């Protein structure tokens, strides 16, 4: 531990002005040239804190009192914010949230990517930042349904969630009542005993609902009573599923889902396209902002109809299918088999014939397709998970010399790392556009357009 950090002691109290915020909702200030993280703090707050933990380069502190409140500080509309772990920055005005997220992107590009001269476009926010989620995964115990508390597996029981559609309140009330009336046992992770493990609600823009009961069993007991109760208590239910998960641990969904009532799929409309959704499907959770995200990608792509587009980490094919009408052909690659099946189903649903989807690791399958089919991509779309792209894939892209790359990221840190690699390997950043898909949280989506330049 260096000499500077020794001047700050665990248990001591300080007054500190906060200057920044992390994606996990911790205010950031400085004491004795050391960074201090304060949970619940906001940029512009002057706060009284108690030091709880001191490391070599930073300290963590408990917020005791707010001496001067940030201009961005608001009273959260959600009564569960202080306990629930779903949102991190609901105590910040929405415009303040948007500015903070833009700064997160800019700071990561500069600090991690070394990209000092890059301009970041104003973030695309929501007109109404509530009721935006189309998917809720409810946990439950013998007292009822809810979400986990911050940094724990303690359940916060709720009657509604302002991120979910209004029908979520009906789902919570109805299923809580059914569990009590039918005396359904609740799964316990520690003992691996009990029946109901959780509830998944999916909703489309038309307000249609798919309700999935996750069970530790072979089949849905008291099926008729459960189906009738759900239909009576939750509006516009199009599908009722049971998902069988008999594995130990806290993985939410098992692999096997059985439709016990209604349509096998929920259909969501994104732009002019329809997408088929099952309980296990991956799909962006904010349908309204997904349109804005995909329109940004389409504008950056600026296709003429003659291009071959590779959509890597394509998931269920949504981005590639969104671009297909403007491209010569789209080739999607994904390592999850169920996602590829969904992608092919969605291509058929929309009668798109110039898109094909391949199962495999992006870096392997891309080179295989290029070699076997003699194709060369004019544009590559990258939409990796939070950990970013494999370096072998980035190396393959630069070796190919693909003229243009669009990188879609949900993690500014790994985005900045990968952009550093690509810029050093001969690509120039042409545009950076953040999009807010998750109001009230520290998450931000970013779209980056890159083009190949001569080194």
Automatic annotation (TrEMBL):
Residues of the active site = 410 (nucleophile), 410
The entry marks the following residues as binding S-adenosyl-L-methionine, namely 284, 313, 334, 383
Q: Which Pfam families match?
A: TRAM, tRNA_U5-meth_tr
Note whether Nucleotide-binding occurs among the keywords.
no
Molecular function GO labels: methyltransferase activity
Q: Which Gene3D superfamilies match?
A: 2.40.50.1070, Nucleic acid-binding proteins (2.40.50.140), Vaccinia Virus protein VP39 (3.40.50.150)
- Alphabetic keyword roster: Methyltransferase, S-adenosyl-L-methionine, Transferase
Domain TRAM: residue ranges: 7-65
The UniProt entry's GO biological process terms, in alphabetical order, are: methylation
Give the EC number(s) under which this enzyme is classified: 2.1.1.190
Q: What sort of enzyme, by top EC class, is this?
A: transferase
Q: NCBIfam families in the record, alphabetically?
A: rumA
Q: Which family does it belong to?
A: Belongs to the class I-like SAM-binding methyltransferase superfamily. RNA M5U methyltransferase family.
Can you say what this protein is called? 23S rRNA (Uracil(1939)-C(5))-methyltransferase RlmD
Gene name for this UniProt entry: rlmD
